[in-house]
């Protein structure tokens, strides 16, 4: 009884594997025939592209040929604009280094978070009075830039009369003192040399002459 059960399980497994193998072979032959029919009707250009795939006949990026990133605006004879586009080849792709936050000014220079690249320099547009809110937005003189807005939460300045120019008015300079300052005074007469004058020495006492007795 046990042997018959084992034989039945083995035969069932073999039949299942055989059916799976037959279905796999039929699918493979059907795909091959479809590809062959499509290849027979394809054009020579499509065959060439399919043969070179995934390698394209021409490189896609700008590596090795950075001149492809140059634009016509860079060769114009106009006055140079600090915010004009400047295209460079960075990591095999053309980028505008005057406004790209990941390549600001030069390739690889990344601006901090919430900063913008203005003319090739990283600028905090939230507080910068020269680039307030966006690049090139300059606040008036004496007005602060806060949260990207000029004069945020500040009262309007009164428009009074302008002071005279130049401010303050120049005053006449006082007369200059005589040169040299202070003026030199005449020196007093020099004392006689040597100072003090030497006095004559008193005569030296002589001992009495020695007389032999």
UniProtKB/TrEMBL annotation:
The keyword Signal applies. The keyword Chaperone does not apply. Residues 161-213 are annotated as: Disordered. It holds the Pfam family Stig1. Residues 1-27 form the signal peptide. Keywords: Signal. InterPro entries: Stig-like (IPR006969). Belongs to the STIG1 family. This is Stigma-specific STIG1-like protein 4.
């Amino acid at each position: 009884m046990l042997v018959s059960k084992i034989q039945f399980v083995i035969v069932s497994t073999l039949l299942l594997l055989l059916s799976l193998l037959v279905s796999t072979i039929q699918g493979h032959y059907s795909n091959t025939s479809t590809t062959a029919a499509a290849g027979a009707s394809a054009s020579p250009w499509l065959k060439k592209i399919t043969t070179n795939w995934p390698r394209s006949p021409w490189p896609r990026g700008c590596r090795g040929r950075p001149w492809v990133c140059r634009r016509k605006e860079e060769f114009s004879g106009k006055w140079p604009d600090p915010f004009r586009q400047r295209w460079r080849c960075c990591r095999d792709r053309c980028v505008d280094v005057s406004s790209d936050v990941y390549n600001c000014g030069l390739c690889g220079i990344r601006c901090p978070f919430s900063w913008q690249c203005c003319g090739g320099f990283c600028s905090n547009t939230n507080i910068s009075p020269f680039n307030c809110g966006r690049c090139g937005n300059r606040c008036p003189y004496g007005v602060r830039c806060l949260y990207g807005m000029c004069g945020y939460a500040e009262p309007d300045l009164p428009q009074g009369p302008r002071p005279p120019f130049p401010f303050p008015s120049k005053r006449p300079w006082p007369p200059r003192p005589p040169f040299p300052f202070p003026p030199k005074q005449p020196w007093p007469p020099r004392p006689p040399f040597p100072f003090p004058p030497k006095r004559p020495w008193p005569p030296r006492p002589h001992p009495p002459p020695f007389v032999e007795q």
